[in-house]
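Consider a concrete sample entry:
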Amino acid sequence: MKLLTAALLLLFIAMCLASAEGVKCKCSRKGPKIRFSNVRKLEVKPRYPFCVEEMIIVTLWTRVRGEQQHCLNPKRQNTIRLLKWYRVWKEKGR
């Protein structure tokens, strides 16, 4: 009886921890199209067990709105072009 109670308690704790991990996925909503010239920083985070796809987080800067962070859809052609452009831009030392 004690073993069954301990197993159920352990299962309950594991389920609570699994639901808390889902909160860490930042990219539940994808951001708008962006201008490459406004990009300040680009972060590519790997796919975690609690996220469906990898996270691409871009930090933009504009005079009107200041700094903003957006998630981008990794499957869109515009995002793939942005990743290529950013790597080349960073290699040039800018």
